[in-house]
Protein 1
Amino acid sequence: MASNIPIYDQIAHQTGSRRFDKILLALFAREREANRGDEKEYGKMIEEIEVRVEHRHAILLELEKFGTYQIMNEPLDCLKLAQQEDLDEIAFLTKRRQASLRRATDKSRIIKNLRMVK
């Protein structure tokens, strides 16, 4: 007999069990793995942006060695603004990464409790 919750039926079919605790365990395990995957992706994005910031910083240092000419003020300001935006984005992604890790940890605690219920 099918339930009124299609996701329950889908997970029950995949796990081979209709026991509620096993289905909850599978559901939380999926969410935990998804959050861990998100955390890894945020880490990769942060690394890419950090490399971009380092390259941009090197370019800024080289341009500043030439002195302050009127023609160079606008490009320098543009590069500095882009660098600041990248640093802000790194801060945002770091917060998202920490939140993803926190959610994965919460799911791990729930999984641990579900395993002890048996």
Protein 2
Amino acid sequence: MDTRLLDILVCPLCKGPLVYNKAAQELICKGDKLAYPIRDDIPIMWADQARELNSADMAANTNGPSA
């Protein structure tokens, strides 16, 4: 994932920052508790394609942005 792209992408719902989860290939919005998938290096920023995060997911993603 291009770090320049990560700097400009925000959550389409709340406009908040996103955290890159390299292992899961997802962009995490902590505010909305959603994970947007990345497919073939392309972030899919549609809310209906996002996965809702549970408490365990949120705890696993407490780190800051990573590249």
